[in-house]
Write a structure and sequence with these properties.
The complex is a heterodimer of chains A (about 775) and B (about 290). Chain A is of the alpha+beta class. Chain A has 3 domains: about 150 residues, Aldehyde oxidase/xanthine dehydrogenase, molybdopterin binding domain (Aldehyde Oxidoreductase, domain 4), CATH 3.30.365; about 180 residues, Alpha-Beta Complex (Aldehyde Oxidoreductase, domain 3), CATH 3.90.1170.50; about 325 residues, Aldehyde oxidase/xanthine dehydrogenase, molybdopterin binding domain (Aldehyde Oxidoreductase, domain 4, 2-Layer Sandwich), CATH 3.30.365.10. Helix content of chain A is about 30%, strand content about 25%. Chain A has 20 helices and 30 strands. In chain A, strands 3-5-1-12-9-10-11 form a 7-stranded mixed beta sheet, sandwiched between helices. In chain A, strands 7-15-14-13-8 form a 5-stranded mixed beta sheet. In chain A, strand 26 and strand 27 form a beta hairpin. The termini of chain A are far apart. In chain A, about 55% of the residues are buried. In chain B, strand 13 and strand 14 form a beta hairpin. In chain B, helix 9 packs antiparallel against helix 10 and helix 10 packs antiparallel against helix 11. The radius of gyration of chain B is 19 Å and the shape is globular. Chain B has 3 domains: about 45 residues; about 120 residues, 2-Layer Sandwich (Uridine Diphospho-n-acetylenolpyruvylglucosamine Reductase, domain 3), CATH 3.30.465.10; about 110 residues, Enolase-like, domain 1, CATH 3.30.390. Chain B is built from 11 helices and 14 strands. At the A-B interface, helix 20 of A face helix 11 of B.
């Protein structure tokens, strides 16, 4: 009597993350935990000036200190620029342009000696006039930050569709507002660090936290004068990235220079203060938005101009207009749109990539306007948004094709589950009610939606990912993927997708993803692409293995492979579930056959998206993610303190693959979005960070985290792996916009700046008059 | 901390005070202020480092002859858990409840919080309104000498006190509050945990028939040191509280503070908060039966 095996699915299950046990037990090897024989400590001397010419650097005393193996300055390096603008030499030789600037580096036996040596480096500066805002930097005669950009403008962006003048003429209501978005930073729990080591043939191994290992090799190669083929990137367990490790920052080539100079492995590891000072920030944006609407509630146009404070150098922050313009042009139907960004050098810190990539800023402005326009034409916020929401199979004027689109469902379910309309009306009634000390608390409810890429983003000629998969003689699967695990749970999702095809539990699958000597090419972790792109690639490789196994089983069992299935490590009859053969046994028989074979497959998935044309138009992603969040809050009108009570969220995720990890993504995103809105603020005054510590940079703490009621809209994307879309960035994008709309609902006061810290809220409320005691 | 030449871990007060008498030393108990300050160079590294955690005599809460005594090494967590204090001087326990986080409360000591002399020090405000004294011990003439001074005279500036290099804060003591004493502590931080006070307010006094017979008020983070609010106290005693009176008293409080602007708040906001907190505290006290 043979057992009958039912088909079981791994999709949609609550699968604990594969890397969770080693992280909770402390067994995970972060960059801090790696010890190489003879490894030295690398430390960086930073500028104390924000804009100054370097007259002289004297390293004599530092070099003479016992225990110091190398002291490097720009004179010892090729001086090739890093980053998106290639304008950032790892060590600065001629002048410094912001507070964090790297001017010298030391490799020493111990941290204490390295610290001491840094202090012995004498630097003579000649201060230069500095600028701390884009507006100042654009003035005639403003100090020039980079000689090759005499107007301080490294980039501009222009986009349009339709004719905004016509749109404006057709409008019954036109509004315009200025929005100012602030500096925040990622606050990864694991600080930045790298270890570099050369072998005797000049091959370089870098232990790097990069989230883009293959682009890293290509981009760092000219900076360090080592050809890419001689660079091996090994990624330790990464203690958070959120985009902060998408670009290469000076500490990594500096670490490599030190290793080359000392012929010893060198580790550079940031202190927490350094992590604040020398990490990229979210792009601060000054944004002017002008929008119009017809009296029937139809949007007519959006005209948006932004000024980007680029800081001293160009990293990914300068490219956030790519994402900002998508939201301006295509979050809801916009018949006419014009968009312009000027990116401006200043002597402030510079920005990089950060979860959402400009979309938090854009959505804050757009969704504030959606509420204002709805009110202006006498519609409720829900009906107004529903009226302008896109439907499946719509193509936006920017060329994005929404094959699936759950925006209307997201709007309906969040408002229904939260009781939005009734609460919204009730709160408005109490807006103007006088408050008394002791009962100064008002309630508000607000909503906002989002549009983001959900199927990668073709910003390079390939947006692909490769997978190599082998099944061993005990039916254990090794999946070698190009994609990187940065805590987002990609290992687990990949294991689930492979297990689903091969009828194996996730425990039978090992994912290898951290060594460029082994793994096939991938663009990297960005644009919420990993589940979609790496998932499709892993699935492709698994399907090829499945076909091979079933054909072999068919031959062995002398039955049509079409009638067979793989379940629970067994080959079974697909109709009855009758168990026919152990999978391990089948593979061993392949290995031991006369025409022996291994079961090893590979797949490269390239999404059917296109690069944008010169007008920024084109279907840049294979799929698009949508979501709506409704925020309920209380505001104490006597102190300005906001308490977020509940967030009701719905996200168009295509299909839930791992319920546990998608819940984690959404909760984490909401908390990050909430931190952006009400707590986090990197205070930069005259180019200097005033709060580079967790004491004064306020992250949201556990007691402040609200109830998050989550709903998943499954639109089953035809291109996504088992129908899924990317959802990594989406949950952080619209929280701040929903909060500011809820604050308006509570108080009748509209805020156009972030963060909404208690003092800023109180100042805003006081100015409105009549509401506060 | 490379410059530390000597480490000591004495087990008695005579032993400790003798080491202190030998020359400049850095003492630490919980280390929650000292260690981060030394790491960033905000506190000079002295050649001798003394771990004072082993002085069992300096730990504990007791009462005798109408005086409550809290040893300098008593942890903030011990204060939070003390049923006796909850009963007789709950304002101290209220402050302990606002203090940092569970982990920090387990390590941080009362003496450390006082000697750190932060204008925002959470444990200082309730002790000021209880009329506490500090007891300072040192080695004199071959024995441990003790001197006492009012806590309100102890602070001389941010991070500065009257303690001498050779002294250790052995204990804090205050008279057992009289019957019908009302005590309140309110801390305003921008978040509910792990925050340094933007401002704080303390109040203690005997309240009978809706009226304070005596009152002491203290404010944190509005001056170079924690301060007593003498004008507010004067406005509060022997006054029958009602809405208007409370508003007047809160205005006195607002007028007697002169905070600075820093990375945590502006002077304007701090001044506003003092008024708001004072007003709320008085409304709450007014509505509570004597």
């Amino acid at each position: 009597m043979t057992a009958l095996i039912e088909k079981e699915t791994l999709i949609g299950k609550r699968v604990p993350k594969l890397d969770a046990p080693k992280k909770v037990t402390g067994a995970a090897q972060y960059i801090h935990d790696i010890e190489l024989p003879g490894m030295l400590v690398g430390k960086i001397r930073r500028s104390e000036r924000v804009h100054a010419r370097i007259v002289r650097i004297d390293t004599t005393e530092a070099k003479a200190l016992p225990g110091v193996h190398a002291v490097l300055t720009a004179a010892d390096t090729p001086g090739v620029g890093l980053g998106h603008g290639k304008d950032n030499p790892p060590l600065k030789g001629d002048k410094v342009r912001c507070e964090r600037d790297e001017i010298a580096a030391v490799a020493a036996e111990t941290e204490d000696i390295a610290e001491q040596a840094l202090k012995l480096i004498r630097v003579e500066y000649e201060d230069l006039p500095a600028v701390f805002s884009p507006a100042e930097a654009l003035e005639d005669g403003a100090p020039i930050i980079h000689e090759q950009h005499p107007k301080n403008i490294p980039f501009t962006y222009d986009y349009h569709h339709g004719d905004v003048a016509q749109g404006e003429a057709e409008s019954d209501v036109v509004i315009e507002d200025n929005y100012r978005l602030h500096f925040v930073t990622h606050c990864c729990m694991g600080v930045s660090g790298a270890i570099a080591q050369f072998d005797s043939e000049g091959n370089l191994t870098v232990h790097s936290q990069t989230q883009v290992p293959f682009l890293y090799k290509k981009e760092i190669a000219p900076v360090i004068a080592v050809p890419p083929e001689k660079i091996r990137v090994i990624q330790p367990v990464i203690g958070g990235a959120f985009g902060s490790k998408l670009d290469i920052y000076p500490f990594e080539p500096i670490c490599i220079f030190l290793a080359r100079a000392t012929r010893r492995p060198v580790r550079v590891l940031f202190t927490r203060e350094e992590e604040f000072l020398a990490s990229p920030t979210r792009q601060p944006v000054e944004l002017v938005l002008r929008s119009g609407v017809k009296s029937d509630g139809t949007l007519t146009f959006r005209n948006c101009r932004t000024l980007h404070d680029n800081g001293g150098y160009t990293s990914w922050g300068a490219t956030t207009p790519f994402v900002i313009m998508q939201t301006i042009s295509s979050l809801y139907r916009v018949p006419h749109c014009q968009y312009h960004t000027t990116v401006v050098y200043t002597n402030n810190p510079y920005s990089g990539s950060f979860r959402g990539f400009g979309n938090l800023q854009a959505t804050f402005a757009v969704e504030s306007h959606m509420d204002k326009l709805a009110e202006a034409v006498g519609m409720d916020p829900l009906a107004f948004r529903m009226h302008n929401a896109q439907q499946p199979e719509e193509t936006t004027p920017q060329g994005m094709v929404f094959h699936t689109c759950g925006l209307s469902e997201c709007l309906s379910i969040t408002t229904e589950k939260s009781g939005f309309l009734a609460k919204h009306d009730a709160n408005r009634e109490t807006q103007a009610a006088p408050t008394r000390t002791g009962s100064a608390v008002k309630r508000g409810i607000g909503m906002a939606s989002l549009l983001h890429v959900g199927g990668g983003a073709k910003i390079y000629r390939s947006d692909g990912c490769g997978t190599i998969l082998k099944v061993d003689d005990h039916a254990h699967v090794t999946v070698i993927t190009g994609s990187t695990e940065i805590g987002q749970g990609s290992e687990t999702v990949i294991a689930q997708l492979v297990g689903e095809e091969l009828g194996l539990p996730v425990s039978a699958i090992t994912v290898i993803n951290s060594d460029t000597e082994i793994t096939p090419w991938d663009v990297g972790v960005h644009a919420s692409r990993t589940t979609f792109i790496a998932g499709n690639s892993a699935r492709g490789a698994a399907r090829k293995a499945r076909d091979k196994l079933l054909i072999a089983a068919g031959e062995k069992l002398k039955v049509d492979p079409e009638t067979l299935d793989l379940r629970k490590g067994l080959v079974v009859r697909s109709d009855s579930g009758e168990s026919l053969l152990e999978l391990g046994k089948l593979i061993r028989s392949l290995h031991f056959a006369r025409k022996a074979e291994v079961v090893m497959t590979s797949d490269y998935y390239e999404p059917p998206s296109v690069m944008q044309d010169s007008e920024f138009k084109g279907d840049v992603s294979a799929s698009y993610a949508f979501g709506t969040q409704v925020v309920e809050l209380e505001v104490d009108t006597g102190t300005g303190v906001i308490r977020i009570l509940k967030v009701t969220s719905a996200h168009d995720v295509g299909k839930v693959i791992n319920a546990l990890s998608i819940e984690g993504q959404i909760e984490g995103g909401v908390v990050m979005g909430m931190g952006y809105a009400i707590a986090e603020h990197l205070i930069v005054k005259d180019g200097r960070m005033k709060n580079p510590s967790f004491r004064d940079y306020k992250l949201v703490t556990a007691p402040e985290i609200p109830v998050v009621d989550m709903h998943f809209i499954e639109t089953n994307d035809p291109e996504g792996p088992v129908g899924a879309k990317g959802v990594g960035e989406a949950p952080a994008i619209c929280t701040a916009a929903a909060i500011v709309n809820a604050l308006y609902n509570a108080t009748g006061v509209r805020f156009c700046e972030l963060p909404l810290t208690p003092e800023i809220v109180l100042r805003g409320l006081k100015q409105c008059g009549g509401h506060c005691p | 901390m490379a410059n530390v030449e000597r480490y000591e871990a004495p087990e008695s007060l005579p032993e400790l005070t003798q080491i202190l008498a030998e020359g400049p030393a850095t003492m630490f108990a919980g280390g929650t202020d000292v260690v981060p300050q030394m790491r960033v160079g905000a506190r000079p590294v002295r050649p001798t480092l003394i771990n004072i955690n082993r002085l069992a005599d300096l730990r504990g809460i007791s009462e005798s002859n109408g005086v409550v005594r809290i040893g300098g090494l008593t942890s903030v967590a011990d204060i939070l858990d003390c049923a006796f204090l909850k009963q007789v001087a709950s304002v101290v326990v209220q402050a302990a409840d606002c203090f940092a986080s569970g982990q920090v409360r387990n390590a941080a000591t009362l003496g450390g919080n006082i000697c750190n002399a932060s204008p925002a020090g959470d444990m200082i405000i309730p002790l000021l309104v209880l009329d506490a004294e500090v007891e300072l011990a040192s080695w004199r003439n071959a024995c441990v000498a003790r001197r006492r001074m009012p806590l309100c005279d102890f602070f001389t500036g941010p991070g500065k006190t009257c303690i001498e290099d050779a002294e250790v804060l052995a204990a804090v003591q205050f008279p057992v509050p009289k019957p019908h004493t009302v005590g309140r502590f309110r801390k305003f931080g921008t978040r509910p945990a792990l925050d340094i006070a933007v401002v704080s307010v303390g109040l203690a006094g005997v309240k009978e028939n809706g009226c304070f017979k005596d009152a002491r008020v203290a404010f944190g983070a509005v001056a170079p040191t924690p301060i007593r609010g003498r004008n507010t106290e004067a406005a509060l005693v022997h006054v029958e509280l009602d809405g208007d009176r409370i508003s007047d008293i809160a205005q006195v409080a607002e007028q007697e503070v002169s905070p600075i602007s820093d990375v945590r708040a502006s002077a304007w906001y701090r001044t506003h908060l003092i008024r708001e907190l004072m007003e709320r505290m008085l409304h709450e006290v007014h509505q509570t039966r004597d």
